């Protein structure tokens, strides 16, 4: 997940015409971004549903004392509530789609970021909204889009990190070490010596600061590590080895259980056909 190449800053769209309104509560905007484009940290007064029609993006959000990084492939989208700071890095050249929603149509209990599975219907609705004009058909498209979003399957696909300033430094150091090489070690007991804390202490920190345990967190880190490799067309055997799995089948079984589809579904040759 660590980017070693030079990122290219690009401005985010803060035009006054972008904001959704009561009369037009759902707005869909398309944007093409090159690999390694970086959209600076920002936030909106409205909620946002964002995904790549093609390509791959990394979105880091900050909520309270926790930062979470999401790797978002084309068949998934990230829901970002109002007033949540987020930054975007494009891992593979992307056709980005931002769908902005007025509070009047936002699900009341959606206060946390979440990854949603983008159905074929939802994907087509989003594309249709880009060219629609005010009227009865446009209102129907917006209503159906919101309904399809609300009923979309939610997926645990994010890597939470302690806040860089307020979080526990030992926990953050361990998390960063795992992210640099998730295949190096598989057990928490093998990592804790590097950060000068006991296994019990670090296990408590995972639970208290990140709301998870080490093995669940590590699986999310492995998925975030594997998705960009798959998107670049790297063979599954190599991705499995880089993720710490001795066999392709074991990696594929974990991946399919977590993602709902086999690793091959997320490779470039497959994504181009969707």
Helicity range: 25-40%
- Just give the CATH class of the largest domain: Mainly Beta
Number of helical regions: 9
Largest β sheet strand count, sense and barrel closure: 10 strands, mixed
Q: How does the overall form come out from the CA principal axes?
A: globular
- CATH fold descriptor of the largest domain: Jelly Rolls
Number of E strands: 10
Radius of gyration over C-alpha positions, nearest whole angstrom: 19 Å
Low-confidence spans = 269-274
What is the averaged pLDDT score?
Answer: 89
Helix-strand blueprint:
Blueprint: E1 8-10, E2 26-33, E3 37-42, E4 47-63, E5 66-72, E6 76-80, E7 85-101, E8 114-117, H1 120-131, H2 136-150, E9 154-155, E10 159-162, H3 169-180, H4 188-191, H5 199-210, H6 214-231, H7 236-242, H8 248-259, H9 268-271
Parallel strand pairs: 1-3
Antiparallel strand pairs: 2-7, 3-7, 4-5, 4-6, 4-7, 5-10, 6-8, 8-9
Helix pairs in contact: 1-2, 7-8
